[in-house]
Every structure is written in C-alpha cells, then in structure tokens.
Amino acid sequence: MKVSVVKNILEANERIAQENRAIFDEKNLVVFNLMSSPGAGKTSLLEKTIGALKDELRMGVIEGDIQSSQDAERIAALGIPAVQINTGGACHLDGNMIRDTFKEFDFDALDLLVVENVGNLVCPAEFQVGEDFKAMILSVAEGDDKPAKYPLMFHESEILLVNKIDLLPYVDCSVEKIREEALKVNPGLTIFEISCKTGEGLGAWYDWLRDKVKARRSARKQQ
Amino acid sequence: MKVSVVKNILEANERIAQENRAIFDEKNLVVFNLMSSPGAGKTSLLEKTIGALKDELRMGVIEGDIQSSQDAERIAALGIPAVQINTGGACHLDGNMIRDTFKEFDFDALDLLVVENVGNLVCPAEFQVGEDFKAMILSVAEGDDKPAKYPLMFHESEILLVNKIDLLPYVDCSVEKIREEALKVNPGLTIFEISCKTGEGLGAWYDWLRDKVKARRSARKQQ
C-alpha cells in the first residue's frame, strides 16, 4: 500500500517531467538540475558560473527553497532571470513545480536553464524535472564517506563538483577517497575539484559546461 | 488527495511514536533524536559524548543511514550497544523503524538512547520517533543562512549544536547571525558552539546532557 502510493507519485512526476522536457527540446533549451546538501555551495557555484559565462550563454535560474527568496535575489542581482520556488515544507522540487515557473520565463531568450534544487542529499535525486542532466556538489567539509552513505544522488548525476577544496588543510577528508567511492557508485561520473571561494578548478567546469551546452544544442538542431 | 495521504502517514507515525514513548517511559529511558545535514558531525558528536559520559550514563545508539553500517561500527567500537537501521532509500527515520530495533536492546541496562537520524536537514524533523527531545547540529561550513531557509528543524529542536567552529577563520559564516536567525525561528532553543575536532565547547554540552537525563529520570520516578 505504502509502496504503491510512492510509485504513483513517482509515475505522475515522470509524466510531467517528460512534458517539461518536450517543451525544453522545442525551445532548444539545455537544462540542468543542481543538487547537494544544504550549504555545499550551489548558489555560490551559480554566481561564479554566471559571472564567467553570461556573455557566452544566455542563462536563467529556478531557485528551489523551502522558504525565503534569498537565493533568487542573489542570482537576480547578477542581471539573470531568476524565479524562486518556495516548496512550503517539501524537501525536493518536482516536475509540477518547475512547470509552474514557465510563465515567468521567455525561453526563446535563453540557452541554459539551471534548476537549483532544495538543499538535500537524498530526496531530490528521486524526482526528474525534465532536465538534460543532473549535477551535484559535495563539500569537503561533509566528509569522504558520503558516496557510500548517500549513493543515489551520485548514481543519478553526470557531474560531481567537489567544492571547498580550500578547506582541505583543515578537515579530515580525502578527495582521493571521494573519487574512488563515487566512481564505484557511478563509473561514468565526471568529477571536478573546485573552490568557489578561491576560484580554483572552476575553469575546467566552465569549459565542460560551455561545450556541453553547445554540443547539446547542435545535436538538437540536427535532429 | 495528496495532502490526505501525507496526513495519514504522519498520523499513523504519530501513533507508533506514542507507543514507543510509552515503552521508553516504562523503562525510565531518556531518548533523544539527533538530526543534521549530511556530514555536520552527528557521529563525531556521539563518539565524543560517549567518551566523556559513558562511565556516568549507560548509553545506547540507533544509527539511521540509507545504507552502510559504518556509523554503527564506529559507535560499537567504543563498547556501546549500537543498532544500524538501513532505510533503503528513505530519507528519515520513523516510529516504526525505531520500534523494529527494540528486540536488539536491553532497555533495563540503559539510561540514555540516542537516535542518530539520516543526514537530512529537512524530512527527519517531520517524524516523531517517541523521543523526549530533538537536538540538531549545524556545521559552520554550511553557512549562516540555514535557519531562515530550513526553519522546521530549528523549530522542532530543543538543542542546536553549532559545530566545526574551528573552521570559522576559513569560512564565511557568522555564529552571531546563526544565533539570531535560529532564535527568531525558535526562541526557546538552547545553543552550544562546539568543535568535535578540538573539543572546544563540548564540556557545556556534556553538563547540559548529564543534567537533562538526571532531571528527566527523577521526574519520571516522582510520577
């Protein structure tokens, strides 16, 4: 009975996510879903990424938070269209919440839409929103045992950004162990080691993202 | 319809939690539910607390993780009865999972049972397990905007442990702001600033916990 309720919710969400995806495809819009624990650096990564790429990629951001609009305000301050979703208690974004933001955007004026999920290393990984790919952040302050303990998000993501590497001298965390354990869960994972504070490692992420968006858009055009 | 399903799940859980609580009361066992984001330091806090108090308080621990038994092994290595719950994907512990561990413990040989919840700053706060009180940890590496963005756990907790204060020189986080924002959400919150790494501030927490367990047990005896 319980399992069946969960399955129905997930199936209903999957259908809405596919509808969202069809709209993104029609508009030739690349979408990624950015997930992490609270405070791992999602909004900071977006601020840096927008600063670096906004002249090359026309970006928009959907901010998901249980409440408050601080994150959307941080993004909007950079001159980027940003819509805040307040889930009112819910621990993840779903396809329906994303669909509700569509009227706020002009998708013809965007190349890339980023969905910043609610800070939670568990539930967001279960819910598709219509994205092209998922990216996750793990802060080194969270420790190197996280891929083994919270495997689903590592399994579902195409990108793992290991953030706050400037803290490595002060915390008990091995990036080598994160890499090994994360690749055990998902051998296809692409991993970047970054510091949103110092900027270290961000260039490789910008290059990857720029290439990904261009490749995706040109593949769509050839379809 | 959706709301009604959620409500029924929460109501069923509430009933089971009350049954658990009746058993804890009968055994004169004090129980607290320890919650935080992944990697904020729940298991480290328990290791330190057990080391400091195990000659005064007979402690047992229930470890909740989606998978793996690393945390229960860390606790059992200290000579403390520890039972691992693997939720198999679920993002929080509920009353039923806790009840399933009872056969593994001799409650007559314990004064204090700690339930270490799944690492998640959102969902665990919604589910009672029969505890006397809830305690939560926020790592300073997570940032000082968390009480405003994830208010429910701050609202439900009696204790907030602000951990990893040894990292304060290296992160953009004001403990003063955490205090202010957390007290806005829950004016009754008792706050400790600690470092499980250096031991700073832990003495005050040990004193509070020792007094709480003793006061609770003597209040029960007088009933």
How would you describe this structure to a colleague?
- Chain A has 223 residues and is α/β, with parallel strands linked by helices.
- The first copy, chain A, has a single domain (2-222), classed as Rossmann fold (3-Layer(aba) Sandwich).
- Chain A has eight helices and seven strands.
- The first copy, chain A, has helices at 2-26, 42-53, 70-76, 95-99, 146-149, 151-156, 175-185, 202-222; strands at residues 30-36, 59-65, 82-86, 112-116, 133-139, 159-163, 190-193.
- Chain A has a seven-stranded parallel beta sheet with strand order 3-2-4-1-5-6-7, sandwiched between helices.
- In chain A, helix 3 links the parallel strand 2 and strand 3.
- The longest helix of chain A has 25 residues, at 2-26.
- The radius of gyration of chain A is 17 Å and the shape is globular.
- The termini of chain A are far apart.
- The mean pLDDT of chain A is 94.
